[in-house]
Amino acid sequence: MPGSYSVVTGRKARKFCTNMLAWLDQKTEIVEGADQSSQYFEPAHAAYYNGKPGQPLKLMLQARSDFLSIWRRADYREHVAEFKLLGRQLVIVNSPDTIRHVVAKRHENFERKTPQMRRALEYLLGDGLFISDKETWKQRRPLVSDIVHKNRVPAFGAIMQNTASELAERWQSLGEGAEVNALFEMAGLTAEIISRSVFGNDLGQEGANAVTEGFASYQALVDSINLGYFLGFDEGLPIVKTPNLRRSVKRIHRIIDQVIEDHLAGKGDNSSMVELLVRRQQRNPELKLDVVALRNEAATIFMAGHETTAATLTWAWYLLAGAPWVEAAIHAEIEAVCGNRVPSVDDVPALSWCRAVIEETLRLYPPVPILARQAAEADEIGGVKVRKAALVLIVPWLLHRTETLFPEPHRFHPERFLGEARPTPYSYIPFAAGPRVCPGLQFGLTEAILCLAILAQRFRMRVKEGHKVQPQCRLTLRPRDGMPVTLHRR
Ligand code: HEM
């Protein structure tokens, strides 16, 4: 009866709690299949959900701990779905046309990130591009895009090449079959690359470590409040500013501010992204970018630019380990293109197999598996009436595994990306699409292809015996507990 409630006490309460805990703790069923003789690999993914329909609260709680396991087979098709959760309208948009409507045609109505995402990140990033909208976003977007633009990527190629080669050297010093965690190795690699690109040589080893660790601990906090999950609509949810968090944010800000002030005073590494930001401000003083605004954009590029690429590379290693026939193809390609020389950024256009592996990896494991927006005004998407302030979700995880768009969608098949054929527009969106598309797309793709080529030229990875790989949707889509692997010299 609406409005009534009952209090459960004693044995009943204990039983209720035990059931609830058991239910919350239930393990996601993971599907994984391989047959080397028929060159077939279906990498790990959650089984289709087949619980009772009509239990939104249960699904909501399950989504908080595992967003990937709540989808039924029927969700993996081209459609628009609508739910109501605690009075809030939630719209899931899963077809190229309707996605185009949201991200391109009606971009201004759907450009706004969810309140929870904005709140959680603003302490660290201020009004940085990732969470800004309206005038601030319009003014800053061309600035940031220009700095990470594809024309500038070759200039950062040497940083990518040197950093990946240093890692290869370190791996060489470990024994044959050494155990490492691929996710941590890749996170270290991409953090180093973005740190050197954004800040040049100005940070020094100690400053670089402090910034990287500060971001990692901030993200752990953000993760713990489930940022990025589809319930991110609570405008009032306060971010818990523990003393530790305050200290690490202050430290990050202080270090970055110092670098910026040095650049403003004409001292600092000329080739860094911070220098490009500062020069742009000096050429266009009407932009009115003060130290805080410059810091916010530098911090945004730093944060947006490394975890995604680390997750991509980790998943690529897993896929290669499960499909040795693809691994053989990329080894042959690297040999044909580079011989014994270390692959460089100039080789990237010729590494079509490596590119196809990265693109297929981004299809199967999109590092940003949910794009969540808040509708500014009422609208209609694919016949569904959308209310003002509704939560609109595009879920690349679902879209990329929709059979009408990608036949045999759960299968690792990089050949889909070889040659001229491209996926239908708005069906493949690991970097989002429309005006808010990832400005670091070319940087990230080049970095992933080049690092993979440099490391695969010398090493193979195999998932540690007995380890069960399980995708987990946190801030980015990554393997639960990382990816324990063994390293093998080639
Ligand atoms: C494989 C690597 C990467 C992937 C998959 C990726 C994916 C994405 C996605 C999906 C978004 C849009 C998020 C949303 O709208 O909710 C985004 C935004 C962004 N990315 Fe990337 N990214 C990658 C690498 C990079 C790199 C290397 C940089 C910088 C060097 C970068 C900088 C940014 C920035 C600044 C934004 C915010 C853009 C805006 O809101 O206008 N990303 N990225």
Please outline what is shown here.
The chain has 490 residues and is α+β, with helices and mostly antiparallel strands. The chain has a single domain (29-489), classed as Cytochrome p450 (Orthogonal Bundle). Helices cover 47% and strands 12% of the residues.
Could you walk me through the main structural features you see in this protein, from its secondary elements to its overall organization?
Its cofactor is heme. Heme binds at residue 438. This protein is α+β, with helices and mostly antiparallel strands and 490 residues long. It has one domain (29-489): Cytochrome p450. Helices cover 47% and strands 12% of the residues. It is built from 16 helices and 13 strands. It has helices at residues 10-24, 56-65, 96-105, 115-125, 134-147, 153-173, 182-199, 204-224, 243-264, 273-283, 291-304, 307-322, 324-338, 352-364, 396-399, 441-456; strands at residues 30-35, 40-46, 79-85, 88-94, 179-181, 371-374, 379-381, 384-386, 391-394, 459-463, 471-473, 477-479, 484-489. The strands form 5 sheets. The protein has a 4-stranded mixed β-sheet with strand order 3-4-9-6. Strand 7 and strand 8 (384-386) form a beta hairpin. It is globular, with a radius of gyration of 23 Å. It starts with 9 loop residues before the first helix and ends with a strand. Residues 1-9 and 224-234 have low confidence and may be disordered. Bound molecules: protoporphyrin IX containing FE. Residues 129-130, 141, 144, 148, 300-301, 304-305, 308-309, 312, 367-368, 371, 430-432, 436, 438-440, 443-444, 448 line the site of protoporphyrin IX containing FE.
